[in-house]
Amino acid sequence: MQTENETEWFVPDSSVEVRQGDLLVARSLQTGQVEELCLVITADCDISKGKFGRQLACLRVLPIDRYIRTIWAAKKLEKLQKNEYAKLRGQIAKWHTLSLGSESSITVAAAADWVKREESEAICNVLQVPNNERKKFTAVLTAFRSASAALEAHVEQDKLTQFAAYKGCDSK
Fold first, then answer.
1. Does the pLDDT value for residue 12 go beyond 70?
2. Which of 1, 82, 148, 168 is most buried, most CB within 10 Å of its CB?
3. Cα(170)–Cα(172) distance, integer angstroms
4. Share of the chain above pLDDT 70, in %
5. 125 falls in which pLDDT band (50, 70, 90)?
6. For 129-133, what is the mean pLDDT?
């Protein structure tokens, strides 16, 4: 998205009335491409009587590809991360509870931080995960670590790319 100094709003001649339902257009000064579209939602009666103050009420119109790459993907990524973090916490809390002999109070953030900074074998040793369960538990830790690394590697890219990278590595 460009800044205000890089775009200009098309302003119709003052003799042309703006009405509810009109589209307002902003174009890039460099390319002339349409950067922003806004649909006027201020009521015609308010416009004709000057009851809208200094600004019209508008809805931003997004092309479907921009919506998917930003808003939709951001929501999906947030939900996926929340679920994966909760699953990770559940797996760690299970073994933590068994090793403590009482309910684990480990938080989601603490579990995630631990997995990111410690090797799987060390975590298994601390939690006293039985040898016959270590492969499965280690796979969960590795998948989480891989998904987190993939997300970090794509941090400068759009949310759809981040979502795809994270989803490609999640623990299924």
1. no
2. 148
3. 6
4. 90
5. very high
6. 96
From the number of C-beta atoms within 10 Å of its C-beta (0-12, 13-18, 19+), residue 74 rates as middle
Per DSSP bridges, beta strands 58-61 and 34-40 are: antiparallel
CA gyration radius, the chain = 26
DSSP the chain: ---GGGEEE----TTSPP-TTPEEEEEETTT--EEEEEEE-S-HHHHHTTTTTTS--EEEE--HHHHIIIIIHHHHHHHHHHHHHHHHHHHHHHHHHHHHTS-----HHHHHHHHHHS-HHHHHHHHT--HHHHHHHHHHHHHHHHHHHHHHHTTTS-HHHHHHHHHTTS--
- pTM, entire model: 0.71
Q: What is the spatial distance between Cα 109 and Cα 19, in angstroms, rounded to a whole number? A: 51
Question: Residue 3's pLDDT band (boundaries 50, 70, 90)?
Answer: low
Asked if residue 115 has pLDDT above 80, the reply is yes
- Starting at the edge strand found earlier in the chain, the sheet holding 23-28 runs 7-9, 23-28, 34-40, 58-61
